[in-house]
């Protein structure tokens, strides 16, 4: 085997080990940004990357990735955020956030934007 071929094989093997870390955010953030705008989440939340009026019905969603809990007592992780966005009342029947008919895919992409957006 030539040295060059050997190098290529080694490079390929190294590439195979490059698994993404388990805490990688799933979904498509840019698609999520559009879905957030289409569902008018901005009517109640300040959201990085989306313009609109000063609003404080729900809290700002800037820096969401830094929070340990959301909506009071829900541990902050991507599956829980998707659940919350799709059906807040299933988690907290008293919450003022309405159920907005968000699809699973849109909710996942929204969380991808919210968890990675820089202010
Ligand atoms: C009518 C106003 C309203 C709309 C529209 C709305 N929300 Fe909310 N949202 C709230 C309120 C109020 C809370 C606080 C809930 C609580 O703590 O019980 C909240 C909480 C949240 C939280 C948890 C934040 C935290 O730090 O506790 C997330 C995430 C969230 N909303 C995302 C969204 C998304 C995404 C949309 C659009 C699909 C949306 N919201 C639309 C009112 C709204």
From TrEMBL:
Heme keyword on record: yes
Entry keyword set: Heme, Iron, Metal-binding
Pfam families according to UniProt: Cytochrom_C
Annotated ranges, domain Cytochrome c: 27-118
The organism's place on the tree of life at top rank: Bacteria
Name under which the protein is recorded: C-type cytochrome
């Amino acid at each position: 085997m030539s040295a060059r071929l050997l190098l290529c094989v080694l490079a390929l093997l190294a590439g195979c080990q490059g698994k993404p870390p388990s805490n990688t955010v799933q979904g498509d953030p840019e698609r999520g940004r559009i879905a957030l705008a289409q569902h008018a989440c901005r009517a109640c939340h300040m959201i990085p990357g989306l313009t609109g009026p000063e609003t404080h019905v729900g809290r700002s969603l800037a820096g969401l990735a830094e929070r340990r809990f959301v909506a009071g007592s829900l541990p902050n992780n991507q599956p829980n955020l998707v659940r919350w966005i799709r059906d807040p009342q299933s988690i907290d029947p008293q919450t003022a956030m309405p159920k907005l008919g968000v699809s699973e895919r849109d909710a996942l992409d929204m969380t991808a934007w919210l968890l990675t957006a820089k202010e």
